[in-house]
Amino acid sequence: MLGSLWRFAVRTAAGAVALWVVIKLIDGISLSFPTTPLYQDGQHDNLLTFLAVAAIIVVLNATVKPVLKLLGLPLTIITLGLFSLVINAVIMLLAEYVSDLIGFGLRIETFGAAFWGAIVLALVNWVLGPITGLLGAKKD
Prior knowledge:
Structural class: mainly alpha
Low-confidence stretches: none
Mean pLDDT: 89
Number of helices: 5
Largest sheet: 2 strands, antiparallel
Strand order of the largest sheet: 1-2
Shape: globular
C-alpha cells in the first residue's frame, strides 16, 4: 500500500514538472490559480495547483486511459499507433473538465493545443522516467 502511494506521489511530482513545461511551451494551455488561499497565507498555491492538476492527470491515466485504449484499439491498429496520441489529447481535455469541476483552472483552448500538449507532456515524462524509476515509481 505504501509503495503504491509513493509511486503516486512521485508520478504526481513528475507530472507537475511536465505540466509546467507544457504550459510554458504550448500556446492555448494555461493554468489559473485560485483567488482565495489554498493553504495558510497562499504562498504555496501555485505549487499546490500544479500538483492537484497533475494528480488529476495521473488518476485519469490510471483509470480512464486503459478503457479508451481498449475502445480505440481498432483505430490504433489501423493508424499504426498514432491514434494513441489522440487518446492522450482526450485525457488532457478530460483533465481540464475535472479540474474545472474541482475548482482548479486548467484551460485548454483547442483540441490542437491539447494534442500538442499531450505530446510534450509525454516527452517530458519520458525524459523524467529514469529519475522516477530511481525513486521507485516503476512497478517491479
